[in-house]
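Quick one, T. Sequence first:
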Amino acid sequence: MYAIDEHDRVVPLDDLPQSSVGAPCPLVTQDEFTAVVAYYVEAPDPDWTGETVRVVDPESSAEPAAIVRFRGMCAAMFGPPNDEAFDGHPLARRGLHPYSAAAIHDSSWIRILERMNSVHPHHRPEQYAQLRHFVLAFHDSTFECVATGYDFGLASGPLDRLAGQMLALVREGIR
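Structure tokens:
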């Protein structure tokens, strides 16, 4: 994880579909330059009475899903915190919430990456000006990356069947 300073600002990404608050089951595939994240989206069933439990899993659930591709990626993390420990995330006090998608403006993480690379003999700080820090906060995990941008589409699960499409999106980013 990284430490933040007074400059980091959380800006919601309202265009990305809301992840399921119960079981988004995020699936991540990536190479050095592209990351693709698929997750179930929040799709309330108007007929659900709350009297039963609906089990959702990545292998068999035909739930609506989002596939988000991060282009020009230079760093990524996937793991903690989950929704119950989210107050421990360094950006929680800045307005980052569980079950949200956000861009972090004036990101400390990007500035740390730029300083780390500054020892390279051909370091070009202007390359870091085009990078953006993105966060997708799920129920049981959080995905973060630094990339130049993203695009997304909607699909239908199960997520495991979307893995081939996700890999094709990663490979397409290489061209």
